[in-house]
Amino acid sequence: MVNDATRRDFLKLSLAGALGAAAGCRRQAQPAPAPVEQQAENPLARRLGVCSWSLQPESADDLFAKLAETGLTRVQIALDPIRENAKGGWSDFTARSAAHDITCVSGMLGTVGEDYTTLETIKATGGVVPDATWPQTWANIQADADLAQAMGLKLVTFHAGFLPHEESDPSFAKLVDRLHQIAELFAGKQMAIAFETGQEEATTLAAFLTKLDRKNVGVNFDPANMILYDKGDPVAALRTLAPWLRQCHLKDATRTKTPGTWGAEVRLGTGEVDWKAFFATLGDVGFTGDLCIEREAGDQRVADIRAAREYVLSL
């Protein structure tokens, strides 16, 4: 999702929260924002949220303040900082969220040792693929699952890693086994999981999901990731993966001109995602779930997220 050496600066910089806290949680011209009244009537408004890590919060209070600036009250929450709860900055998170009228629509977990310096480094270190980090990743996932259950969440998303194209690949069986293990854990807690898109072509992911054959496993579709990783047309990919769609990230990007390197993430509405076609396709496939704005580049996160919200509601 991000081009930084550590995909989630947030997971390193933010303070985190305890289990006990969970007692209650194409490039195109930018159109003018729709009037507030029109935005309120837009049915998309009730489905929009934001990814907490996009706001780079240092504590729960910092998150609440930044959310207020975006005009959004629904959030996909990063679970690892809450679980770690460094310096108590995320204590009593669920109760405090309720007091601020914040709704957590889903959770996100990270895996150990992810390095997003280049496409090659993330292929080697991402998700649940690396053997060296799997034991600690699995321990963290179990704790995050407990936390998500205590918070009342029904969906948790993560990057599974680069999926093998062929069953003959030596890592195929290992990956299927690990993802079965994770799916079983969450199913036992009446929760679903969703893999983030982009690190493979949609047809590869669809084939893998078919092989995995778990009812509580789906995808968190990110159109920008298809561009960032140069893995095909986002709208066509959305149609391919529609049967597994659980949630969407709203993010924009421009495609690389140098094969084998990253594309560039840009503010939503200024990149190469055809947003009108994207939302039309969501309607065609009957998806009415959550849509979480994500911004992982730039130093004007709050302003970019607010602009993204206004852009989406003006379509």
What this model shows, in words?
The chain has 315 residues and is α/β, with parallel strands linked by helices. It has one domain (9-314): TIM Barrel. It has 13 helices and ten strands. Mean pLDDT is 89; it is low at 1-24 and 26-38.
Brief account:
The protein is an alpha/beta fold. It has helices at 9-13, 36-41, 60-70, 79-84, 93-99, 119-125, 134-150, 170-187, 202-212, 223-228, 234-241, 275-284, 301-314; strands at 48-51, 74-78, 103-108, 155-158, 192-196, 217-221, 245-250, 252-254, 264-266, 291-293. It has one domain (9-314): TIM Barrel (Alpha-Beta Barrel), CATH 3.20.20.150.
Q: How many runs of DSSP E, i.e. beta strands?
A: 10
Domain count: 1
CATH superfamily: Divalent-metal-dependent TIM barrel enzymes
Largest sheet: 8 strands, parallel, barrel
Q: In percent terms, what proportion of residues is strand? A: 5-15%
Q: Low-confidence parts lasting 5 or more residues at pLDDT below 50?
A: 1-24, 26-38
Principal-axis shape:
globular
Q: Kindly provide the radius of gyration, computed on alpha-carbon positions and rounded to a whole number of angstroms.
A: 18 Å
CATH-level-2 architecture: Alpha-Beta Barrel
Order of helices and strands: HHEHEHHEHHEHEHEHHEEEHEH
Query: Can you give the mean pLDDT?
Result: 89
Q: Give the strand line-up of the largest sheet.
A: 1-2-3-4-5-6-7-10
Terminal CA distance:
25 Å
CATH class: Alpha Beta
Tally of separate helices: 13
CATH fold-level topology: TIM Barrel
Helicity level: 40-55%
Structural class: alpha/beta
